[in-house]
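Researcher: Re-running this chain for the archive, since the previous output was lost when a drive failed. Same request as before.
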Amino acid sequence: MKDLEERTYLSNLLEVYGDLLTSTQKEILNESINMDLSISEIGEINSISRSAAEDAISKATTKLKEYEKTLHIVEKSENCSEIIAKLKQKDENYEQLLEELEKINAI
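Model: Regenerated structure tokens:
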């Protein structure tokens, strides 16, 4: 079982890039990450072997991480969310936070 942080990260990647996967990869990864089904359960539901389920999860996870490595959409979103939260707290480093947002936007 993946730790919570990894599961949350993969769930975010799946939400952003999921439509770039095959429908089967997307569904199997969703069953693994968001529905917390076991490999055996995934195999049974999809009428595939445990090995095929593991392979689909592995390939889909690799693809999602490659998309993020190239596009950085989830990273940018998380960075913007952090800065917005600080701005909502009326952070005194307003100018610095704006510069950080501009850097993120430029990536």
